[in-house]
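[retry 2/3] Extracellular solute-binding protein: previous attempt timed out, resubmitting with same input.
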Amino acid sequence: MKKQSTIALAFTLLSGTALSGCGSDGTAGTPGTPAAETKPAPAAGDKPAEVKPFTVTLRHTQIGESKQARLKILQDAVKEAESKVPGLKFELDGVDSDVNRKEKLRAEMAAGNPPHIFDLFGGADTALYAKNGKLLELTDILTELGLKDKFINLSEFSVDGKVYGLPIGGFQEGFFYNKKVFDTLAIKPPKTWSELEAVAKQVKDAGKTPFAMASKQAWVPLMTANTLWSRYAGPDITSGFAKGTAKWNSPEMAAAFGKYQEWVKKGYFPKGELGFEYAEQRNQLITGQAAMMYDGSWASSVFKDPKQAGDMVGQVGYFPMPPVDGGKGDQTAVNAGFSNGYGFSANLKDNELKAVKAFIAAQYNEKMQLRGVIEDNVLPSMKIKPDGVDPLLKEIIDAGNNAKSTFPAFDALVQPDVNSALSDGIQQLISGVYDAQKMLDKVQEAQDKANRAAK
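[retry 2/3] Extracellular solute-binding protein: success.
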C-alpha cells in the first residue's frame, strides 16, 4: 500500500460530481451483454434458450453484531446482481477477518481454489496474489462499467499500474472517548503527548481503565502500536521493513514498544485483555469502565446505534493520537487508507465473469457508498457527496482534514509471515514473556527471512 497524500485531499474529492452512467436511482449502470454479442430474438416456434442455474461463492467478513449494517448493504447488492444475470445464485460465506486473511484465503490461494469473490486486503496481500496470477485484473472491467475514474484512491490494490481489487470504503484511526467520564473528571481531549499521559494517569487514579483493549486478536492492540511507532520512528519507517532499509529492532522502534509496555505495566489497559474479543473493548468504553479507546473509524457506527450504545448515543467523541515529544517525521500523520475490499479469482468461467461484473456494478456505486457512510459510518472509497453525515463521523473527518499526511496500516506493507511474528510478539509483550527489545529482535528475524525469500 502506497502512502497517500492527505485525508483532506480525499474528502475534497468527495465533493466531485455523481457517478456518470448512474440511473435515476443513483446506481451505476449494470453490465449487460455487449451490443455486438446480442443474440436475435428466437424465431417463431423456437424454444427460448434454457437458463442453467449456477452458483458464485462470495467470501465476506461481515459477521457479528457491529457489522450488521454492512452485511445488509452487501446482501442488497447481491440481490441486485442476481436480478441482472439469469440463473445466478450467490452463496455467501461469512468468515472472521483474521481467519480469512491469515488462514483460509492463504491456503485456498496456495491450492488454487479461492472463492469466486473474496474479502481482500490491499498492499502486500494484493501484490503477492497478483504476482502469482491468482487475481482477476480489473483495469478494463472498470472502464467497461464506467468506474475507471470514480474511486478516490486505488493505489493499495494496484500492481504495476493494473488494478486487482476494489476497496469497499476508507478508514482512519484515532482515540474515541467517553464524554461522560471526561466530564465527570473535568478532562478535555488531550492535544499533546504530556496531556495524554496526564489524562491516562488521572483516569487510572480515579479507578477506571484509561484505554479500552481486547487483545485476543492481535491486530486490535497493533492498531495502537502502529501509530505509536509511527510517532516515535516516523510514519515512513514501515515502508522500509520489506525493502530492508529499516529495522524493526532499531532504537526508535524499541522506544515505541517500550512505551507500550510501560502502559501495560502501569495498568492502563484492562486486566485479562488477552482473553477479550474485539467487540468487548467497545463495551468497556460504552459502560464507562474505560475512558478512551483507540480504534478505526468503522467503530463509530456502534456509537450511534441505541441497541448497542444505549444512552451513550451522542456521548462519544474522537481525537487523533497527539504528537510525541522528539518523535520523527510528520507528527500529525494519521493511519488512514482504502485497504480493505473485494478481490476476484483469476480463474472464472464466462457466466461467473458476468456475475462478477454485475456484483461490481451493484456494490460500487454512489447509492451504496452513501449507504455505507450513513448506515455504517464507513468512509467512502468513491467520489460521492456525503450528505447527512453523523456528528461523530464529522469529527473523524475533521481530524483527518487537519492532518498533513497519512500512512497505511503496517499489514498492507509487510509480508504475511512478518505480520504473524508481530502478532505473536505483541501478545507475548502484553503477557510479560517478552520485553520490547526481545520482541522486536524476533520480528526482525522473520523480516530478514521474508526478505530473503522475496529475492
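[retry 2/3] Extracellular solute-binding protein: The domain at 17-36+50-170+338-384 is CATH 3.40.190.10 (D-Maltodextrin-Binding Protein; domain 2).
[retry 2/3] clearing retry counter.
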